[in-house]
């Protein structure tokens, strides 16, 4: 009998390791000095818990403004061309499955807005349909976007059941000046260009510097623990503790995309 | 054999003089830019350094490497930062840099027109970095 598949894989893997040479293999396997010296935030499965009990219209507005300011997201005041990374939506539109399951929703929930953003799904349909690999799931669970590679086919927008993705129908720098004073507002972050899809990235650029996402920081300055951000893979993390303590719902969980944004009702 | 030379003689050029003069004038016109600009090659522009860049003395890599291969370095940065999430690099001298065109490169080389554009214009390339990345504000 010849070599079976398992043996073949083992041999290939070992010879690849050997071929990489002692030093390189060591560097690949052991974390470098650089990472240890920098304030990187590391997680295996980033998630957010949104406590709607303490949430107000003001906090949601501040979160949206902060996010859109640090990411140079333009305002168009036209739902046909709007770009949104984080936004407000009423119960019926945020949780249509809950509404279907229960016709009689409590007044306090039915007639209020919820804070929505990309769910950074565990099983993201947007990444499955992207033909160029411009959107993919990072090892820490973040559904990332590479705007260099996006060709603007908008398959991901069709794939996402949450409306988390927006398309740049025109150059964002040509957005109306009176709605966008001082645009681009963050000179350390790029804008996007015409023909590119964009969305929330869980502030990967801030995580890399050891900072919390902009919305989390903003909300918690107004009222602590309204937005809780942490690592679901760590059983002792703040998000896991919050999920243990409270009943939460997720948007359209029955679709099986595994949303990682939880709402305490 | 005789027939061949006869055939040659029979191939007459009608209005031969006019055609040849026209060809010569046409050729002269075609080549005139070369004669006109002979010996006057446009000088390759030298990138100018800002005071901050001069003070730093050392870029993220050697000057020779940066001159010839900055585009490969930037391409590598864009790949490793966005795809692999590696936002920092250690230079040979041990200094740690934040890998960002907009923040790190342009933070030092804030004179984009004199540092980037004039050479890019000279070699007639038009990098599309600036469609998204924000150019530094220059005091011209």
The overall pLDDT of chain B, averaged over residues, is 89
Put simply, the count of helices of chain A is 12
Q: Could you tell me how far the N terminus lies from the C terminus of chain B, measured between alpha carbons in angstroms?
A: 79 Å
Question: What are the low-pLDDT stretches of chain A, counting only 5+ consecutive residues below 50?
Answer: 21-37
Offer a few descriptive terms.
heterodimer, A: 265 residues, alpha+beta, Alpha-Beta Plaits, 2 domains, 4-stranded mixed β-sheet, two-stranded antiparallel ribbon, 10 strands, B: 140 residues, mainly alpha, two-stranded antiparallel sheet, 2 strands
How would you describe the overall organization of this protein?
The complex is a heterodimer of chains A (265) and B (140). Chain A folds into two domains: 5-30, no CATH class; 46-264, Alpha-Beta Plaits. Helix content of chain A is 33%, strand content 14%. Chain A has helices spanning 5-20, 22-29, 33-37, 57-70, 91-94, 96-101, 107-110, 125-129, 155-159, 204-207, 214-222, 238-245, and strands spanning 46-51, 86-90, 113-117, 135-137, 143-145, 166-167, 197-198, 227-231, 248-249, 261-264. In chain A, strand 4 (135-137) and strand 5 (143-145) form a beta hairpin. In chain A, strands 8-1-10-9 form a four-stranded mixed β-sheet. Chain A is α+β, with helices and mostly antiparallel strands and 265 residues long. In chain A, helix 4 runs antiparallel to helix 11. Chain A has twelve helices and ten strands. The mean pLDDT of chain B is 89. Chain B has a two-stranded antiparallel sheet. Chain B is built from six helices and two strands. Helices cover 55% and strands 4% of the residues of chain B. The longest helix of chain B is centred in the middle third of the chain and has 22 residues, at 63-84. The radius of gyration of chain B is 28 Å and the shape is elongated. By secondary structure, chain B is mainly α. Chain B has two domains: 2-36, no CATH class; 51-131, no CATH class. In chain B, a hairpin with a 5-residue loop joins strand 1 and strand 2 (96-98). Chain A binds chain B through residues 33-34, 37-38, 72, 138, 140, 144, 146-148, 184, 187-193, 204-205, 208-209, and chain B through 78, 82-83, 85, 87-90, 96, 100, 102-103, 131-134.
């Amino acid at each position: 009998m010849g070599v079976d598949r398992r043996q073949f894989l083992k041999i290939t893997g070992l010879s690849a390791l050997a071929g990489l040479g002692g030093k390189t293999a060591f560097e690949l396997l052991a974390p470098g000095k650089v990472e240890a010296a920098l304030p990187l935030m590391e997680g295996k499965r980033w998630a957010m818990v949104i406590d709607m009990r303490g949430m107000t219209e003001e906090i949601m507005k501040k979160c949206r403004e902060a996010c859109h300011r640090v990411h140079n997201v333009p305002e168009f005041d036209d739902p046909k061309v709007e770009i949104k990374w984080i936004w407000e939506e009423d119960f019926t539109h945020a949780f249509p499955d809950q509404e279907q399951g229960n016709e009689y929703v409590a007044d306090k929930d039915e007639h209020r807005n919820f804070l929505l953003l990309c769910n950074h799904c565990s099983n993201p349909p947007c990444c499955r349909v992207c033909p160029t690999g411009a959107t993919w799931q990072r090892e820490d669970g973040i559904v990332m976007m590479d705007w260099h590679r996006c060709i603007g086919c908008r398959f991901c927008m069709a794939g996402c059941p949450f409306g988390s993705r927006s398309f740049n129908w025109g150059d964002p720098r040509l957005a109306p000046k009176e709605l966008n004073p001082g645009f681009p507002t963050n000179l350390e972050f790029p804008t996007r260009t015409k023909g590119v899809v964009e969305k929330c990235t869980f502030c990967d650029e801030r995580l890399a510097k050891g900072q919390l996402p902009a919305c989390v920081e903003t909300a918690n300055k107004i009222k602590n623990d309204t937005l809780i951000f942490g690592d679901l893979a760590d059983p002792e993390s703040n998000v896991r503790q919050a999920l243990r303590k409270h009943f939460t719902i997720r948007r359209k969980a029955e679709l099986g995309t595994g949303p990682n944004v939880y709402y305490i009702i | 054999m005789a027939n061949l030379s006869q055939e040659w003689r029979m191939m007459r050029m009608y209005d031969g003089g006019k055609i040849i003069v026209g060809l010569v004038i046409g050729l002269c016109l075609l080549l005139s830019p070369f004669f006109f600009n002979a010996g006057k090659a446009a000088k390759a522009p030298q990138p100018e350094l800002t005071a901050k860049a001069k003070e730093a003395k050392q870029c993220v890599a050697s000057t020779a490497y940066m001159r010839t291969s900055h585009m490969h370095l930037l391409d590598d940065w864009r790949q490793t930062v966005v795809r692999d999430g590696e936002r920092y690099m250690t230079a040979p001298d041990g200094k740690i840099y934040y890998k960002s065109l907009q923040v790190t490169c342009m933070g030092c080389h804030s004179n984009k027109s004199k540092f980037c554009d004039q050479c890019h214009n000279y070699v007639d390339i038009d990098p599309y970095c600036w469609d998204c990345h924000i150019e530094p504000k220059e005091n011209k």
